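Dear support,

We are seeing what looks like truncated structure output for some complexes. This example has two components. We would appreciate it if you could run it in full and send us the complete token output so we can diff it against ours.
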Amino acid sequence: MRLLLRRLSFYVIAAWVALTISFFLPRVMPGNPVQEAISRATQSGVCNLECVNAIRLELGFGVHTSIWVQYLQFWGNLFHGDLGSSWTQGNQPVATLIAQYLPWTIGLLGAATVISFVLGTLIGIVMGWLRGSWLDWLMPVATLFQAIPYFLLALVLTMFFGETAHMLHLLPSSGGYDVYTVAPGMNWPYLWSIVTHAVLPAATVVLASMAGFILGMRNQMITTMDEDFVLVARAKGLPRRRVVWYAARNAMLPSVSNFSIAISLVVAGQLLVELVFNYPGIGYHLFKAVEDLDYVLVQGIFLVIVVVVLVANLLADLVYVLIDPRARQEAAG
Amino acid sequence: MTAGAATTRTETPLAAAGLQPPPSVLRSRGLRVPRSPKVIAGLAILAVFVVIAVIGPVIAPYSPNETGIYCRTACSGARAAAAWLQTIVVHPAEQVCNAAGTVCFNSPAVLAFLPKPPSGAHWLGTTVFAQDVWSQLLVSTRATLLVGFIAGAIATALSVLVGVTAGYLGGNADEGLSLLSNVFLAIPGLPLLIVLASYVPSAGANVIVIALIVAVTGWAYGARVLRAQTLSLRNRDFVEAARVSGEGRMRIIVVEVLPNLLPIVASTFLFTTLYAVGAYVALAFLGLAGAPNASPAGLWNWGEMLQQAYPQNAVASGWWWWWLPPGFCIALLGMGLALLNFGIDEFVNPRLRAAGLSRRSARRAGISLRPRLGITPVMHRRATGGRHSATAAVATDAVGSEGAAP
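Here is the complete output from our reference environment:
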């Protein structure tokens, strides 16, 4: 329990730092980017005086209260779930908008990460066990995939498989579902449309992120196989499958504890993948908001990304405590 | 480190890598590192790109911004028209009628620019703006590499500063600095980078500014790795000896500890550079690193090329010569940096060395690559040996003595 509390308080601190940065950025950045954003909102014609004042208040521009009072108000608003409203999205509250975007991102991210982690770990185990075999040709391939940015892989996959491109016409490469032919709701055509539209983005994220898991797991497996307990297990005449399982279980621990770094990278990659595939998640809308200088929405989305990543980290910590007896002992004590 | 417990690779002390700090640490290491095929391949890739970065803008046949390049010299009249016509698709004007044929109107010709595929005149074809892709690629290499290396250097300096200080000082300083780097590790880097860059719209015009922004989000992992390594070095005998003999704290860190961290510092530099190149290209792809025709003008880089190609439908239209070359360069540069990094990994952790060995050289070295429990082939080369004289020392002790903690 103590361990978990410590981790939890760490994530609270991390969230506090991130949000404080996002609070101070518009207030201290040189060159008045906020002024430009406000003048764009004013000139757009869809943002009336009340709306412009709301933006000013949110970004602390031309407001006469002290910055610390603003900071307290910022936290007060956060705890009330008030993230401001977005003038580019018809003045809807940012919280409502994010609630619409988030399921797409979480669904894609969750599915892709689980597939990638499980597959990557399995392949890494086999490659570590059979080092020096024909499987080693996977090494340069994995290195290449690790070096390719996610969005580039997304472009390549679009070229090969995308419906709009000229090669195979296999899978839809734009949007979250087919907006022209199916109606959202609990019906099969809609669900099927979601699945087919998710294939290419998910495949991109899986392919790009799996290489890291494979390489990490393989190296860890090679190191673990030299440990005494593996030799003992072998000497006792246990079947090979059991021996591999013993080694793999231990080799997996660093993979899980390094999951936090991996998840940051995967999230970052997926944001760009969403842009390439016009996938209606938070990444896509983050870039639209950045393009439109809608800083209120940008801040809201940044907050949500931070929270999602930190919660994923906390979950990984929980899993680690469950699978590592040492951590379990520490957590109990 | 308890026996039987999986320890992360990064925490493996240097002694575990069979590295006893010899008197002249730097020289002996310098001789041993750059021999594996991975390192050589990585260095070769990097060298090619560095050369292009230096001479690229000079040898580029056209200016990357120059449009309408088809007709550069002495173009007039019919020849100019002919050159220009090749670049446009013409849906000719036609008469469109309704089904009954009672109402007709003239639909005007539809003109669209068409990028040209690679040819002798334009090695990598042209863009939809009639610009030379090959020239753009050559010119773009410089900024991409510069930002990558500068950001990598800044981030590595930060990592060393934070990581080594935390690891060596311990106590409250360690707590604080570790917390700082762990917090920055937990905060997702790219979103922070995007938010930062969105508030500095002119950052793309200045290599240093954009590199600083990238470096701020990329130092934390290196700091963590270096801290762990410093911790394991701190209580070694030779550091203890230096301390007892009354050397100052600064001197111990710089003269005793840092040289033993060099492989890790080098590896940190490589992966932060890799991260920085990726981050810069991603920012440019998002249009956050300044367009070359904006004011102040952004720098040409590979991400910028992709940023121009993607919204023009280059992928869907099959204009591969426009976006694949910059993409290929990004992947190749990344692969070069990753290969170098693997080389260093294998240098630090010899158990991985045999794993990367080719079948032929393994046979020549007289070791089996079949997984044999308890036996780790630890590869080393004779100091005087040539390229193919790999020999193997087989650590036949079941305990894996080179893995024993000090």
